[in-house]
């Protein structure tokens, strides 16, 4: 795939970036070099290679998945204007 100056200008316009003629010419060469490198990577045989999440093998740190109330109800309702039995008390809205 090859990029020309018209493509660079169009992408710059879509990104709302002002690009001069000289910058467009320079970016054309840079983008073509990047796309050439990507094409080289596409030629690499990756059959049998497992996907990696990190360069160094790691195991995820996991905690027990248990349901708790957090034992924080007293702290949560401490600043409430009115509370009762760990519940917020609010004025009646609907008659």
Structural classification: mainly alpha
Order of helices and strands: HHHEE
Numbering strands along the chain, what is their spatial order in the largest sheet?
Answer: 1-2
The beta-strand count equals: 2
- Give the fraction of residues assigned to helices: 25-40%
C-alpha-based Rg, rounded:
30 Å
Distance between the termini: 70 Å
As a percent range, the share of strand residues is under 5%
Overall geometric form: elongated
What's the pLDDT, averaged over the residues?
89
Characterization of the model:
The protein has 95 residues and is mainly alpha-helical. The protein has a domain at 5-37. 39% of the residues lie in helices and 4% in strands. The protein is built from three helices and two strands. The chain has a two-stranded antiparallel sheet with strand order 1-2. A hairpin with a 2-residue loop joins strand 1 (83-84) and strand 2 (87-88). Helix 1 (5-14) packs across helix 2 (21-42). The radius of gyration is 30 Å and the shape is elongated. The model has no long low-confidence stretch (mean pLDDT 89).
